[in-house]
């Protein structure tokens, strides 16, 4: 079992990433998450072992920020998501990275995810900015699109 928590600003696509991974679906009308939602998914790795992910998808809205430690305290993996079209969400992602470095498990694996990569014509956060920040903080970095499914499964293989 790998407990995984997704953190990031409201509207960056955390729930869409999880639904794409767990159910293979994309819902453009996805509603705001209240508190947190829990899903689990078992995946087969190349060496034919399996990993069961227990995924906490947390609410991005400010009023739920105080609840986040309940979900990330025991997590083995922290996935911090931002929207490549939103510099504000990239700043918020950096806040979550600092939170996890301070209060998460000392051996937590962190991944920085630039989501909505299909919206490249509206991009405001460069790929290089994401790479640089991730490298500076010892994190994995990947850009995904929950809409097109690009890199979604790859994201969940990073830890393995």
From TrEMBL:
<dbReference type="Pfam" id="PF00071">
    <property type="entry name" value="Ras"/>
</dbReference>
<dbReference type="GO" id="GO:0003924">
    <property type="term" value="F:GTPase activity"/>
</dbReference>
<dbReference type="GO" id="GO:0005525">
    <property type="term" value="F:GTP binding"/>
</dbReference>
<protein>
    <submittedName>
        <fullName>Uncharacterized protein</fullName>
    </submittedName>
</protein>
<dbReference type="InterPro" id="IPR027417">
    <property type="entry name" value="P-loop_NTPase"/>
</dbReference>
<keyword id="KW-0547">Nucleotide-binding</keyword>
<dbReference type="InterPro" id="IPR001806">
    <property type="entry name" value="Small_GTPase"/>
</dbReference>
<dbReference type="InterPro" id="IPR005225">
    <property type="entry name" value="Small_GTP-bd"/>
</dbReference>
């Amino acid at each position: 079992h790998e407990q995984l928590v997704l953190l990031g600003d409201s509207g960056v696509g955390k729930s869409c990433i999880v639904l794409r991974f767990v159910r293979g679906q994309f819902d453009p009308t996805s509603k705001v998450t209240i508190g947190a939602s829990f899903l689990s998914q078992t995946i087969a790795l190349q060496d034919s072992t399996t990993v069961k992910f227990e995924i906490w998808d947390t609410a991005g809205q400010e009023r739920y920020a105080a609840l986040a430690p309940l979900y990330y305290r025991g997590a083995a993996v922290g996935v911090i998501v931002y929207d490549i079209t939103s510099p504000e969400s990239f700043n918020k992602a950096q806040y979550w990275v600092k939170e996890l470095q301070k209060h998460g498990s000392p051996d937590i694996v962190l991944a920085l995810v630039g989501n909505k990569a299909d919206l490249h014509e509206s991009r405001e956060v460069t790929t290089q900015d994401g790479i640089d920040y991730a490298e500076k903080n010892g994190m994995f970095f990947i850009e995904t699109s929950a809409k097109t499914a690009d890199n979604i499964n790859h994201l969940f293989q990073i830890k393995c």
